[in-house]
Structure formats: C-alpha cells, structure tokens
Amino acid sequence: MSVIYVLLTISIVVAILFFVAFIMAVKNGQFDDSYTPSVRMLFEDELVKEKSKIKLTNKTNK
Amino acid sequence: MNETTCFHCGDVCDEIIQHDEKSFCCYGCKTVYELFSENDLACYYDLETAPGATPKEIAGKYDFLTQQNIIDKLLEFNDDSKQIVTLYIPHIHCSSCIWILENLHKLKTEITDSQVNFGKKTVRITYDASNFSLKEAVLLLSRIGYEPYISLEDYTTGNRNVNRSLIYKLGIAGFAFGNVMFLSFPEYFQVSGFWIEQYKVVFRWLMFAFSLPVVFYAAQDYFISAFKGLRAKILNIDVPIALGILVLFVRSSVEIMFDLGSGFFDSLTGLVFFLLLGKFFQQKTYSFLSFERDYKSYFPIAVTKILKGKETPIQVYDIKKGDRLLIRNEELIPVDGILINGNAAIDYSFVTGESETVQKQSGDNLFAGGKQTSGIIEIEAIKSVEQSYLTQLWSNDVFEKNKEESFTNLTNKISKHFTVTVLTIAIIATSFWLIVDASKAMNVFTAVLIIACPCAIALAAPFTFGNLLRIFGKLKFYVKNASILEQLAHINTIIFDKTGTITSNKKSTANYEGEQLTMEESALLKSTLRGSNHPLSRTLYNILDEQNIVTLDSFEEHVGKGMTASYHNNNIKVGAATFVGHQEEAKVLNTTVHISANNSYKGKYTFYNSYRKGLSKLFNNLKKNFDLAILSGDNEGERENLKKLLPAKTKLIFNQKPHDKLEYIAYHQKEGAKVLMVGDGLNDAGALAQSDVGIALSENVNVFSPACDAILDASKFNQLDKFMNASKSAIKIIKWSFVLSFIYNTIGLYFAVTGQLSPVIAAILMPLSSISIVVFTTVCTTFLGRKLQ
C-alpha cells in the first residue's frame, strides 16, 4: 500500500480529533461567554498576593 | 468645589462618615466595606475605584424564598447536599464585581463555587444545601450591595436551552471547506499523469464524504427557507442559493461517479461556509439586553398574603379575587385592587412613564404595575393577575405579530428578478447548445446555475448591517437585529411619547409666582421640605438654593394635602391650594405647590417638565425628512411650552391612553406611513409593537425597558437623526455591493455560457467575489461609523 494512504489517514484522523474537540468545547458552553474569562484570568496575581498575606499573618499569630 | 465621594459606591456624600481614613456616604456602604476588609477582600477596591452599590433595606422582601414550590422553579440543580442557582444581578458592571462575586466562598464557607457571566449579568452559585439556603444566599448578596432581581419571568421560563446550532454548522462547514480545499489541490495543478490517475479516485471520494454533512446538515436552513418561500409563492434569496447548492452537489457527484471530472466540492463547501459566516456575523446579540420583555419581567414572583392575621408569601399566579395582600415599600402591586389601609403613594412610572407619585386614600382603586413608595399598605385583590388592566394590554393581537415576516427586505426584492433572469439565461444558453453541441448542453445548464448562485448578494446585507449593528452598539444604540436597521431606513414618520421620552425623568424645573419670601421663610421652607418624603417635596428641595437647615420646633405631614411646620415665631404651610387656604384657580394643568407663612398666602411653585438637551435641534434636523408627532398620556399643560420648542408643523396630541396610541399608529400605517415610535414606559408597549420600528428610550439600559425593536440610551437621544441617516447610507452601500457582485456574475456567466467553466475558475471566482464584497461593505460601514462619532 502506498504511503499516501497512510498520510491521508493520519491527516484526517488528526483533523477529526480537532473537530471533535471543537464540538465538545461548544457543547460545554465555552463560546457562550467570551468576556468574563478574559477578565478572570487577570485576577490570578491578586489572589496569590492575597493568600500569601493571609499565611504571613497566620504565622505571626502563632 | 471639591466634593467628597463615597469610597464604596462613588456617590457624592451629603454627610461624611469617616472610617479607616476613608469616607462613606452612608452606614450601608460602611458596613459593606467593613465586611470585605474583615474577610481579606479589600482587593475589591484595588481593581476599580468605588465599584459598590449601597445595600437597600430588604427586611421581609425575600420571605417567599422559603416556599418550596418557588425554590424548585428557581433552582437549576437540587439534591440533598448540593444546590445550584443562577441569579440575575443588575449591578454587575466592572471587574471588581466579577472578583467579589467569584470570591463569595470567602464570606460564607457553605458556598462552594460561584461563577459570573459578565455579559448576561448573572452569577451561578453552588452551595451546600444542608446548612445554607437559597434565601440566605440572596440575603448575603443583597447585604453586599448585589441584590439579585427575581421576577415572574424566572418562574415561568425555567431553564432555557441555548441554541448553538449555528456555531455547529459553521464549524462543520469550515472544517469540510478546509479539508476539501487541500484534497482538491493536486487536481488544480496536475491535470494528467500517472500519479493523479492512480489516486484521484481516493481524493474525489474523500471530498464527496466531506461534502455530505455540509449539504445535509450545515446548509439545511437554506433548503427549508427556500421550500417555505416557494410554498408561499415568494422567490426569496434562499431559492437561488438552495438551487445552486443542490446543482453543485448533484453535478459534482455525477462527475466523480462517471469519472467525468473532479466536481465542484471545493466551491460547494466554500459557498456554504461563507454564507454561514455572514449569518453568524449578522447575529450580534446583546446578552444583557432583552427586547422581548412583557409585564412578567417587571412583576414580582411572589407577594405576601394576609390570612387570619398571619402573613404568608404566595406565588402571584395563585392570587384570587378577595385576597388580602401586603405590599411593602418599593414593592410592585401585582393585581388590580382596593386599598384597605396604609399610606399609599403609588409610582406608576412603569406603566405611564410619569414619575410623579399618586396619593391614594383607603377605598380607592389601585392598578397593577404601580410601585408603593411610602411604607406598608394592605390591599384587597379585585382581579387575578392575567385579568388586570395592565396585563390585559398584552392580549392585544399586535404582540402576536411578527414584524419581520411582513417585511420584504432589499435582498429578497432583488432576488425575485435575479432568479428569473438567471433561469432565463440558463434556458436560452442550454437551448443554444442543444442545437450546436448537444453533449455540452447539460454542462452549460448546471454551470450557469452554479456560477450564478448569489453568494455575494446574500452576503452584502448581513455584513453591512452586522457591522453597523456593532458600531451602533458602541454608540449606545442597541438594535435587535439587522432587519430592524433596514426598516429604519424606510421610516417617514416619527412619533414621540412625551413624559420620560422627550422630557427627562431626573430633572424638572419649578417657577415661583407670588410674594417674595424672606430669608427666614426660605430657610423654613427648605427645612420643612427636608422632612417630607413626598416626591414633589424632594424635587423642590433639590431645586431650592442652599439654606441653613434649622431644626423645626414642630412638623406635621397631612397625607395627600401638605404639611405644616413651625420654627421660633414663624409657621409655614406647604401643599395643595385648599390646604394653605387659597382659592384654587380654574384650569391649572401643571402641578403646583402652594405656600403660606404665618397664615397669609405667599405664592406657588409651578412645576414644568424639563426637556432633554438638544431637543429643539433634533426636531429641526428631523423635520426636513420626517413627519413628526408627539403623543402624550398627560394633559395639555405643556402645550404652549412645547409649541415654542418644536418646529411649527409638529403635531401635538394629548390625553392619549395606551390603546389610543396604538390606534393612532395603526391609522397612519393604513395611510401608507412607515412609523417609528420612540417611547419609554410600559404604556407605550402597544404603540412600540404596532409601529414599524419601536425604539425604547432608557436612562439606564441595564434596567428595564418594554418590548421593543431597539433600545437607545437616553444620553444619545439627540443623535437620533444621525442614526437614521446612517441606516439610509447603509442601504446605499448594499446597493453598490449588488452592482459589484453583478459584475462578478457577468464574468462568471461568460465562462458558464461558453461551456468553459472549470472547477479551478469556480473555486477562484466564488470566494473572490464573496471576499471582495465582505471587504467592500466592512470598509464602507467603518467609514460610516467614523462619521457618526
């Protein structure tokens, strides 16, 4: 069998994998709200700072 | 002057409360701040300055959340240990709001997860149901200034399913388009040879497989729409599109089956992909706005019923004639009823747009939709919810009518001629080839139908209007859909509501007539007004100059009449003419407040509406192109005032009931007018529905506006003429893109008619025409948007 069949099969399988991933993402509602996640990801730093502060105060209390 | 603003809510502080070296406008704001700082949530104030809202007094308001049947309707998920609820919170407006609401678990450990959808202004809260309840969650939110809004609408709709089918279709078409394009590359460049001869069968059948879901799933809307159109004997734009898709698919399949050629699968999938892209682009939705509101989104979900001295919350649909209901301050009256006891000051602004409250005595009739504004009242229901005066308006037929269906848009108008022309060309070309070379006849017939598939025409309107929708949205003019924009361009008559539309709700002006008040009397008047909660007193208090506030020796308010007060040796009476001992003059239509001091009549304040900025200019700009009219539910008190402000030929019609407005518009429509109605209150709902385009004017777009086609932010009211002009220009852009696409079609038809249409030419010509139309319309509308700003 020619190598072209192998290549075609691989390329189509990969394409279909991505396609299934896309369908799953839509189904999970990832495209429903395109704004909030963009803001949410910027909070990460604040939260870490917050937590470390709490830990520090806890330590001093002890 | 440097005013101190509240650290929490940003409002100007009347009296400053100092805490932690920060100033607050009230104890409510201070409490929220304390709560946040105690729980290490002060980061809330770092993200945005003054993001909060003052928590309101809500004692008893959410008692209905203990009723199991109501809880069941609101919850999204419910088992013994876990409950999930999605609440609509109108105050969500900045990143701080997202942050605090997603950190609710720090305030209450029972809340396991909370997730904000900023666009929809909702928060989805998951909590441990064993020692926490929905009511406690709502109370917690209210306490931190994020009071959820729970209306009757939540009760009836339940969980809504999101329709994502267009995204799926677009995904499938795009996926197939990309793959088919790759698979057809070998044959574009190598027409013959050993390699291609050996493998072309595989490539072709793979393309065929990819095109199947595109034709039978992604493109199904076009077939359905074309079928519906044909059944109604209308040649809409989807008829030639569906024909093109069908011919493309059949011819391509036949070609590969009998090894005649490679088929047009690339053009087929590309065509569907571009068409769907246009649809997707046009579908701009404002998730935080609703254009379909009826009374349900205004009405409370439950009300307190008094039975044998006991208060129980009941669902409003369960209210029966004769029930005793308790209406608290700031609550809406859900049914028509009779006032039994209490001090009723009803604000009918939801219904009429008129913000002035109406005083009622016990025994008076109260209408559903009014909002109680002073203390607790008891009413007896005389009708059920559906039969109330206001809710009956929704049984009118206009609310059933679908405006889009009765409107033939530009694309469909063109498509009628287009389809006929294409079919004629196809038949003539085929008959010609039948005589000259019969073997080519079928080839030419299908080629004409393929190349003439009006992809570019079908894309012109969606991209132009889709882009314009976004531009308008940025300028705070929110239009429901593209078809409304097109109808806006055909308007020739504009009708305005008066109260709340051309007048501003917030401000009103008052003129004083009579004897000049002395310094002491003025100070006394201001101090007296300060003690009263009557809206007229509040308005007058705000208008009057600053005075030294004195502590009154005595103050008495007489409901529905006025008030008396005294300080040292002076006494003052403020209120209705008869109350202060003055003969009422006949025919006074404007609201007046009379004043007498030390038992002698001084004078009166007459209130006038304050009109929106730029009103005269707007009307003068509009009068050239439109017939203008004002329909008001009020009396004629403002007629003279309006005549001065507005162009001479503006029609002024007063004393219009909601149904009269609707009839007036229907009458003009019968005479051929295309009517644009601009209104605000629920009383305009009928008129907004009847008109060709109904625009609701809103001081705050996040709050409520009646069902309409577009929502205009009140601050942009004076730009209305520019929006109208822009929509007219959009029609011109579309017409020019039609010209452009006809040029492409003519070139394509030349290849088709002469029998030279090869897959490569189709694959180049079709995307090229589509893309150039998209670029042309996008550039033009962006230019148009620049001019608007």
UniProtKB/TrEMBL annotation, chain A:
Keywords: Membrane, Transmembrane, Transmembrane helix. Coiled coil: none annotated. InterPro entries: Cyt_oxidase_maturation_cbb3. The keyword Membrane applies. The keyword Nucleus does not apply. It holds the Pfam family FixS. This is Cbb3-type cytochrome oxidase maturation protein. It comes from Kordia periserrulae.
Automatic annotation (TrEMBL), chain B:
SUPFAM superfamilies: Calcium ATPase, transduction domain A (SSF81653), HAD-like (SSF56784), HMA, heavy metal-associated domain (SSF55008). The chain crosses the membrane at residues 166-185, 205-223, 235-254, 260-281, 418-436, 442-465, 733-753, 759-784. Residues 300-394 form the P-type ATPase A domain. It is found in: Cell membrane. InterPro entries: ATPase-cat-bd, ATPase_P-typ_cyto_dom_N, ATPase_P-typ_P_site, ATPase_P-typ_transduc_dom_A_sf, ATPase_P-type_domA, HAD-like_sf, HAD_sf, HMA_dom. NCBIfam families: ATPase_P-type. This is Cu+-exporting ATPase. It comes from Kordia periserrulae. The lineage of its organism: Bacteria, Pseudomonadati, Bacteroidota, Flavobacteriia, Flavobacteriales.
